């Protein structure tokens, strides 16, 4: 395809997205979405509009401004970081996932907080690349990623970690296109490979170059976050007795979901939840009923349903209900065909004019083994 043909398609792409136009949607930005779909404009438009849905569901703009990173993630998660430039003047990002303390992290941090943290990291990466492109005047967009597999082992191949990694990759590919320019894996003759793409003075001494931090640190820890072992003092200590007494118990059978219907009467009310499972994880999501149907696929998914490590850590959260109506809190075990999940939960509604919480009694209808539950579990 010629450059002239690409410009014609790009112009049409701008016109198609006029209803959602934002200042950051310049030619360079929209070209990334077109390249990701090989300039098939219908597919690129579908991809971008799905990205907008993702941003709304995950409340991305609010996360960027207000998400408070849990101390354990901030101190011990190997987030990596930008360090130096490649020989083309592009930024280099070091990924040090092999240093992740899987055992400690799973027992100290909620999966949802890890997802939120990853979203903030991806947003930071995109913003950094955009700023670098503007600063240098280069139209080329993308980064070189150095994957350090040091200490990568079987713990990183466990099912929960693999599932979380796949979820991250899907989120990355669908919402941050054309960010990766080149990937270099640190193994074998990695030093020779690195200097082919990155000048020695742009590589930390730890990776075979000459760069150090101002204090002489050869690993450049001021730029690359290597994480560390999570102290056992950070592990979840179980459910306090005073909270346990207020929670309801339920068994969610294999292949089914437990739905709790919540009647929110006032705009601006806050729906809060707290839950813990025994032995195994469970899926969780919140839906808003749009009509008389009790099928999840006919409802609006306001908190995306995903698995939580609630067998390792007490899981909580809240939702600002901007509109009144029927909401359904879903505990999902439909993906498991063998294991029943023993669940303890608390669901409450905080009215904007009240200081007290309205609990399960009276406002939450529990769907058990009746016809309504059967409809809810048919996805």
Structural overview:
- The protein has twelve helices and 14 strands.
- A hairpin with a 5-residue loop joins strand 1 and strand 2.
- Strands 5, 7, 10, 12 and 13 form a five-stranded antiparallel sheet that branches.
- It folds into three domains: 3-57, Helicase, Ruva Protein, domain 3 (Orthogonal Bundle); 69-234, CRAL-TRIO lipid binding domain (Phosphatidylinositol Transfer Protein Sec14p), CATH 3.40.525.10; 241-376, Jelly Rolls.
- The protein has 379 residues and is of the alpha+beta class.
- It starts with a helix and ends with a helix.
- It has helices at 3-16, 27-36, 41-57, 60-66, 71-76, 102-106, 111-136, 159-175, 190-197, 241-244, 360-363, 371-376; strands spanning 81-85, 91-95, 143-148, 180-186, 248-252, 257-264, 269-277, 282-288, 300-308, 315-321, 325-332, 341-350, 357-358, 364-367.
- Residues 69-186 form the CRAL-TRIO domain.
- Residues 232-349 form the GOLD domain.
